[in-house]
């Protein structure tokens, strides 16, 4: 499998995640799509590292940082969603439109 | 164009299929709990690809933190709080169409660029051992490492403050 093939696989994963983020109405569903997009980025970084575009540890270390940041992001997002649900009894993004321009 | 072979063997295609099928299921299944389990499947596929790329440590962290931590936290939150299904389908068809068009557009815009570009590797010294990753984390990337631990602490404290019940007045 060449670098190009792996980049195309990661692009497909990214587009699947983008579709999820745009089409879901459940807030947790949006979060699921976001995780897929982050994983596609990680896959790209490690593929570049393996192909010799950067040195070996840089790709791995940045992927570890992405995983750590994703953990923080999910913890905060879930707590915000829980607080929203408690107040509004809904996690449907179509009902949360006070801030819409 | 130089052929940059990064993964050997045909088993990698199984991992790719796992990641992509899990991803498609994760964004299409109507039950949000099933979607999270499909996300876990996709994450395992990506972890196996990391393994095939030669980085067992990152693959292990992916399984431990993503599959074991993030997915399980999502399942807990969903099962504690929410309705499992999305609301009645109103403008769902039109939204799905637009979302699919946007996703296909991004793929059509970036795919040919990736297929046509040619990269030439320039790094000759490559050390893929876990020891090298550990040294890089605690020496060259030490500031980022510490900052990330502070970010995690702040995020967890913030999550507790946001999600706790307000005390009765």
Task: Provide the descriptors you would attach to this structure in a database record.
heterodimer; A: 101 residues; mainly alpha; Helix Hairpins; 3 helices; 78% helix; B: 169 residues; Four Helix Bundle (Hemerythrin (Met), subunit A)
List the helices and strands and how they pair.
The complex is a heterodimer of chains A (101) and B (169).
Chain A: H1 3-23, H2 27-51, H3 56-88
Helix pairs in contact in A: 1-2, 2-3
Chain B: H1 11-28, H2 32-52, H3 56-81, H4 92-116, H5 130-138, H6 142-163
Note down, in words, how this protein is organized.
The complex is a heterodimer of chains A (101) and B (169). Chain A has 101 residues and is mostly helical. Chain A has a single domain, classed as Helix Hairpins (Orthogonal Bundle), CATH 1.10.287. Helix content of chain A is 78%, strand content 0%. Chain A is built from 3 helices and no strands. Chain A has helices at residues 3-23, 27-51, 56-88. The N and C termini of chain A lie far apart (47 Å). Chain B has 169 residues and is mainly α. Among the domains of chain B are: 9-85, NADH-ubiquinone/plastoquinone oxidoreductase chain 6, subunit NuoJ (Four Helix Bundle (Hemerythrin (Met), subunit A)), CATH 1.20.120.1200; 129-169. Helix content of chain B is 72%, strand content 0%. Chain B contains 6 helices and no strands. Chain B is globular. Chain B starts with 10 loop residues before the first helix and ends in a 6-residue tail after the last helix. The model of chain B has no long low-confidence stretch (mean pLDDT 86). Chains A and B meet through helix 1, helix 2 and helix 3 of A and helix 1, helix 2, helix 3, helix 4 and helix 5 of B.
């Amino acid at each position: 499998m060449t670098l190009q093939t792996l980049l195309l696989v990661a692009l497909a994963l990214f587009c699947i995640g983008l579709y999820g983020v745009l089409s879901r109405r459940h807030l947790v569903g949006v979060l699921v799509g976001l995780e897929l997009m982050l994983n596609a980025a990680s896959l790209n970084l490690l593929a570049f590292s393996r192909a010799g575009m950067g040195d070996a540890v840089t790709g791995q270390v940045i992927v570890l940082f992405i995983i750590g940041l994703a953990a923080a992001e999910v913890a905060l997002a879930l707590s915000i969603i829980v607080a929203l649900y408690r107040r509004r009894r809904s996690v449907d993004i179509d009902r949360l439109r006070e801030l819409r321009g | 164009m130089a052929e940059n072979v990064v993964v050997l063997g045909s088993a990698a295609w199984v991992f790719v299929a796992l990641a992509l099928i899990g991803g498609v299921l994760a964004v299409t299944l109507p039950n949000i709990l099933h979607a999270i389990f499909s996300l876990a499947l996709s994450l395992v596929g990506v972890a196996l690809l990391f393994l095939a790329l030669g980085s067992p440590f990152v693959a292990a962290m992916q399984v431990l933190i993503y599959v074991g931590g993030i997915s399980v936290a999502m399942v807990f939150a969903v099962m504690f709080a929410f309705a499992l299904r999305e609301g009645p389908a109103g403008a769902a068809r039109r939204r799905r169409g637009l979302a699919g068009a946007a996703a296909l557009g991004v793929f059509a815009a970036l795919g040919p660029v990736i297929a046509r570009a040619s990269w030439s590797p320039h790094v000759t010294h490559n050390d893929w051992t876990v020891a090298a990753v550990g040294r890089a984390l605690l020496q060259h990337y030490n500031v980022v490492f510490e900052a990330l631990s502070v970010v995690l602490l702040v995020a967890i404290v913030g999550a507790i403050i946001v999600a706790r019940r307000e005390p009765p007045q």
